[in-house]
């Protein structure tokens, strides 16, 4: 399952670590934009990030793409969400595990 969330929502929900993670990823996008070449496409952080949560025994993500054109997206999806997905240029994954990561888990 997933939802869209911003740092303020995470903080209000008592998830300070998640809010810091969101701020970190936003700062990475901001720095990439600052460093990009004149001919490179813009890198703009979105107001919300996609938060996915999987149980420990799940397979997690299946192979997919993270960006689609507006025409390819479900028209029943909220317009703001469609625009955010269509504007994606970079995907960053931040793992927030309760237990230390075990090398044998792979990934």
Structural commentary:
This protein is mainly alpha-helical. Helices cover 32% and strands 7% of the residues.
Give the helices and strands, then pairings.
Layout: E1 2-5, H1 7-12, H2 16-35, E2 49-52, H3 79-86
Antiparallel strand pairs: 1-2
Task: Give the tally of β-strands.
Answer: 2
> Taking all residues together, what is the mean pLDDT?
81
The fraction of residues in strands falls at 5-15%
Query: From N to C, what is the helix and strand string?
Result: EHHEH
**Number of DSSP helical runs:** 3
Give the spatial strand order of the biggest sheet.
Answer: 1-2
Q: Round the Cα radius of gyration to an integer and report it.
A: 16 Å
Class per helix and strand makeup: mainly alpha
Largest sheet: 2 strands, antiparallel
Shape designation:
globular
Rounded to the nearest angstrom, the distance between the terminal CA atoms is: 19 Å
Uncertain runs are none
Provide the helix percentage. Answer: 25-40%
Characteristics of this structure?
single chain; mainly alpha; 107 residues; 7% strand; two-stranded antiparallel ribbon
Summed up:
The chain has 107 residues and is mainly alpha-helical. The chain contains three helices and two strands. The chain has helices at residues 7-12, 16-35, 79-86, and strands at 2-5, 49-52.
């Amino acid at each position: 399952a997933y939802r869209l969330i911003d740092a303020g929502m995470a903080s209000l929900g008592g998830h300070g670590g998640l809010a810091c993670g969101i701020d970190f990823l936003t700062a990475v996008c901001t720095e990439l934009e600052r460093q990009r070449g004149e001919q490179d496409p813009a890198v703009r952080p979105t107001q919300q990030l996609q938060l996915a949560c999987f149980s420990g025994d799940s397979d997690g993500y299946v192979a997919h793409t993270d960006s689609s054109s507006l025409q390819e997206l479900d028209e029943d999806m909220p317009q703001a969400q469609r625009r955010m997905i269509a504007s994606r240029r970079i995907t960053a994954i931040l793992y927030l595990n309760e237990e230390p990561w075990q090398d044998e888990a792979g990934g």
